[in-house]
Amino acid sequence: MSEEKPEQMYPVRTLHEFLSELNREWRRFKSGTLVSLSILSTLLFVCALLFFRALRLGVDIVVYVFPIILAAFVIYSLRIMVIQYRFFRKWGHRMDQLVLLEEKLMNEKLEEASKQQLSSSET
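Request: output the structure for the sequence above.
Response:
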């Protein structure tokens, strides 16, 4: 009685597929971070304009509090996005190097396999 083991499922088929997908997602996140940085910078500029407008008009203190609190949150978010962008840039470069190394090793292995195949077919 022979039982066939079910084929084991893996999240990715090959290392190359994994690295390609990871590199693609990495670029998306890096682009998203850049978009977030530009939106937050614009929002901070608008907060500053609101604050100076409130100062110029001489309105109640409550009107000052909102732009200040909003600006504090925006500055914090900007700081986080800058840190995130630096992370993606640093590790993205390393991921690119890893992908290039993997492709180089794959090409060498394919060339070696084709040479072996040619030599075995000649004999």
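The CA atoms of residues 51 and 65 lie 9 Å apart.
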